[in-house]
Each structure stands twice: as structure tokens, then as C-alpha cells.
Amino acid sequence: MEVTKDKNVVCLRRIEALLEHLEADTLVLEAFEPRNSARTSRIAKLCRALVSLGNDRGMNVCIYTRKDIDVCFSTVGARTRYEIAEAIARHVPALAQRLPARRKAWTAEDRRMALFNAAALVFTHFRYQAQHVFDEMAGSA
């Protein structure tokens, strides 16, 4: 159990330094609680600590479920994680070269898919935040 705590402490320190360096004001996470995710208990604890860290720093902390991401990308015809990655690669040329080949059913997911999962989370955040702004503008018109 000691190793688990140490991993989380190391991760938190690194993330805190990164947030400080980037002067971030928003922290976006994928849902991590058991009812919304298949994350391990260590990762769920780490994510809860990240939420606390973000709140303590006065950051805007946003958490989106996999369903939120799927709904966001369904509007462009992307239904699977790979189709979402393809859509991102088409619109972000810097990521296109990192798109792995489509996964076979019997192979493990390529590590590079984590980059596209993170990008999908960012796109989802911007989509929902933009919608919120437009909803507010419509309400004040």
C-alpha cells in the first residue's frame, strides 16, 4: 500500500508543478468514480486529490463522462474511440502522425490512444463551454 501512496504523491507534485508552470486556470478530467468509470481505486483517489488541488488553487474543475465525449463526437459521425481519434487527427495536423493503426480485437490498445483520449476530453470541454456561453447569450437577448 505504501507504493500506491508514493505514486500518487509523485504524480500530484508533478501535476502541481505543471499547473504552476502553465498558469492553468482550468482542470479537465474524465469521470473517475466507480459508477462512471473503470478506473482503479488508486487512480480514483489520485483524481479526487486533483479535484481538491484544483479547487484549492481556485481553478475551474470540469469532469466529463465517457458518454459526454461520445455525445459530443457523435455530431461529427464519430462513434467509437478510434473514430473519435480519426476525427481529431483530421483537424489537428500535429496529431495526425501519431494516430496508431486501428486496433485488432485481440490486441491491446496502443499507448498513443491516450493522447487522443486527452484531446477528445479537451474538445468536449470546449464544446460544452461554448454551448454554455451561447445559451447565456440567448437568455440575455
What does this structure look like?
The structure is a single chain. The chain is mainly alpha-helical and 141 residues long. It contains six helices and two strands. A two-stranded parallel sheet has the order 1-2.
Oligomeric status: single chain
Number of strands: 2
Radius of gyration (Å): 17 Å
Spatial ordering of strands, largest sheet: 1-2
Structural class: mainly alpha
Q: Report the portion of residues in β strands.
A: 5-15%
Mean pLDDT: 88
* Distance, first to last CA: 56 Å
Counting DSSP H or I runs of 4 or more residues, the number of helices is: 6
Question: What is the helical fraction, as a range of percent?
Answer: 55-70%
Main sheet: strands, sense, barrel: 2 strands, parallel
Low-pLDDT regions: none
Order of helices and strands: HEHEHHHH
Global geometry:
globular
A few lines on this structure:
The chain has 141 residues and is mainly alpha-helical.
Task: Write a concise keyword list for the protein shown above.
globular, 141 residues, two-stranded parallel ribbon, 63% helix
Secondary structure elements and pairings:
Elements: H1 2-22, E1 26-30, H2 41-56, E2 60-64, H3 66-74, H4 81-91, H5 93-96, H6 113-140
Parallel strand pairs: 1-2
Helix pairs in contact: 1-2, 3-6, 4-6
